[in-house]
Predict the structure.
Amino acid sequence: MEHAFHGRTMATLTATGSRKVQAGFEPLLKGFTRAPFNDLDGLETIAANNPDVVAVLVEPIQGEGGLAIPDENYLRQLRQLCDDQGWLLMLDEVQTGNGRTGSLFYYQQAGITPDVVTTAKGLANGLPLGACLASGEAAKLMKPGSHGSTFGGNPVACAAALATLETIEKENLCQRASQLGDRILNDLAAGLKDCPGVRDLRGRGLMIGIELDRPCAELVSRAAEAGLLINVTAERVVRLLPPLVMTDAEADELVATLAPLISAFTSD
Ligand SMILES: Cc1ncc(COP(=O)(O)O)c(C=O)c1O
C-alpha cells in the first residue's frame, strides 16, 4: 500500500511504501504492485489489469504512515474482495497487535479472519520475537523445516511471549487499552480544543495520533525535555504508543504535559 511500513528486511522493504526507507538497499524484489490505502476501487482496478496478483499485504491501521485508520467497512470489504479474487489477505499487525488497539489483534474488531498475520513488537514485551501466523490454505504452504532462522523460536523470547500473553489476558489489558485510549483522546480533545493547529485527533485504544497543520519533528525533543517520549510520523502526526500497563494518573500526566507543548508549538 502507499505509505505502508513493513520493516527493512528484503521482501518487506520492497512492500514498504517509502522511497526514503528503500533508498540505498536496491535491488528491490520484483512482483510487488502498490495500491492506495483505504481504497477498494484502486484494488479493483489492479485486479482488472493484473491477473497475477496472489495476495494483499496491509497494515490494518498504518502506523509509520501517519496513523491512518481506514473506513469502518474497509477490512470487511477487503476480505470479501480477496475471497472473490482468490487472493490471500495478509495483515501486518506488528504495530497494532498484542492488545494495543483494544483487542489482541485489530482485525478482530472488524469481525474478519486474515489468511496470514504478522506480529512482533509487544509480543515478548521487549525481548526480540516476531511471528507469522497462517490459517486455512495459507497454512499448508509451509511445512515444519521449510523456513527457519538461527534464533527463531528461541526459548527465552518464547517464554517472555507466553508470560506477556498470559498477562494481557489475566489483567484484561485489551479492555484497559481501550478505556485508557478513550480517556486520553477525550482529555486531549478538551486540552487542545482552542488549538487551531490541530487538524485531527484519532486513535484506537493506545495507538493515538494527533495530526497538526505543520511538520512537527521538533516536538520530539521538546517533549523529551519535559520527560515524555513521543514520536512523529508522516512529518505532521504526533504518534503515541504508551504502555498498556499505564495508570490513570500517568495518562492524565501525559495529557497535562503534552497538550500545552502542542499548543505552544503551534502558536510559535
Ligand atoms: C507495521 C510494521 N511492520 C513491520 C515493522 C518492522 O518490523 P521489524 O523492524 O521487526 O522488521 C514495523 C516497525 O515499526 C511496523 O510498524
